[in-house]
Amino acid sequence: MSILKLALFASLPFVALGARQRRATTDEFELFAYGPKLGGPGLFYADGYAYIGDPSLSNSSDAATVICRSSLNGAFTGSPNTTNLANSTSADWSNVTLFVPGPSNTDHRVGFLDSSNTTTSSDIITDSFFFYGSTAMVKGSDGSLETFWTGLAVGNTGVYALYWNDTSLGQVHLTMRNVGPSSPPAAVPISTVTPASRS
Ligand SMILES: *[C@@H]1O[C@H](CO)[C@@H](O)[C@H](O)[C@H]1NC(C)=O
Ligand SMILES: *[C@@H]1O[C@H](CO)[C@@H](O)[C@H](O)[C@H]1NC(C)=O
Ligand SMILES: *[C@@H]1O[C@H](CO)[C@@H](O)[C@H](O)[C@H]1NC(C)=O
Ligand SMILES: *[C@@H]1O[C@H](CO)[C@@H](O)[C@H](O)[C@H]1NC(C)=O
Ligand SMILES: *[C@@H]1O[C@H](CO)[C@@H](O)[C@H](O)[C@H]1NC(C)=O
Ligand SMILES: *[C@@H]1O[C@H](CO)[C@@H](O)[C@H](O)[C@H]1NC(C)=O
């Protein structure tokens, strides 16, 4: 794992760090997943767990893209982005707290706590998230920077379930960033002007 960490670290844009730190901690952001076949679909919530992709493809009635805020204690809290939600969804959750499983947790899925189960005593990490540049990481108990996000394709739906530190089911490594995919440049119209005659 340390080799992966080093390689990732070396490729990170150092210049972006200063810019990020000047921002207010209450800034809203969304998280986007980048990986072998993933060019930046967003993080969404469904039934207390974290997924990547289009929430309208979820079978959950409360699925919605998460608008995150980071708090001073290193937690990422989220509320639903209800813009353009399909009518079938009823995202009535708010202020959920992102968690990744701790090292001894047998459930390796990434999820969210709501206020009714914040006292869950299972092995989860909710207070160590931060950005290195635009990349979301977890600060380990030994101070190391960890980015062990992985994604498991849900059938052929285009949706991925988000995992932490687990590739045993065929999960792919992901990078979670607060920068969305850049939109393609506007098409340059092909000129149909005929050159002036040189007669
Ligand atoms: C938290 O509680 C909600 C509502 O009871 C539930 O849907 C969700 O699965 C729970 N999350 C965890 C991680 O236990
Ligand atoms: C939705 O349900 C169908 C039928 O059970 C299943 O095949 C599909 O994988 C589910 N989609 C998601 C995103 O979970
Ligand atoms: C919410 O979703 C809409 C539509 O996808 C998008 O335009 C908007 O930027 C999102 N809002 C935030 C705060 O991310
Ligand atoms: C949502 O409901 C409105 C009114 O019933 C309808 O006009 C609209 O097409 C629906 N949108 C979707 C995405 O189903
Ligand atoms: C959101 O939840 C956190 C942790 O449960 C709590 O400290 C905070 O006050 C809540 N914020 C709002 C606006 O409800
Ligand atoms: C990752 O999983 C391995 C076992 O597969 C475990 O030894 C290690 O502590 C885990 N690391 C984290 C950061 O969860």
Structure report:
With 199 residues, the chain is mainly beta. The protein has a single domain (25-177), classed as Trefoil (Acidic Fibroblast Growth Factor, subunit A) (Trefoil), CATH 2.80.10. The chain has two helices and 16 strands. Strands 1, 2, 3, 4, 5, 6, 7, 8, 9, 13, 14, 15 and 16 form a 13-stranded antiparallel beta sheet that branches. A three-stranded antiparallel beta sheet has the order 10-11-12. The longest helix has 9 residues, at 2-10. The chain is globular. One 2-acetamido-2-deoxy-beta-D-glucopyranose (NAG) is lined by residues 28, 30, 67, 81, 83-84. The site of one 2-acetamido-2-deoxy-beta-D-glucopyranose (NAG) has 6 residues, from loops.
List the helices and strands and how they pair.
Blueprint (H helix, E strand, L loop, with lengths): L1 H9 L4 H7 L6 E2 L2 E4 L2 E9 L2 E4 L11 E7 L5 E5 L15 E6 L9 E3 L10 E2 L3 E4 L2 E5 L5 E2 L2 E5 L6 E5 L7 E2 L1 E3 L22
Antiparallel strand pairs: 1-5, 2-3, 2-16, 3-4, 3-5, 4-14, 5-6, 6-7, 7-8, 7-9, 10-11, 11-12, 13-14, 13-15
This protein binds 2-acetamido-2-deoxy-beta-D-glucopyranose (NAG) (6 copies).
Keywords: Signal
Protein name: Lytic polysaccharide monooxygenase
Organism: Melanomma pulvis-pyrius CBS 109.77
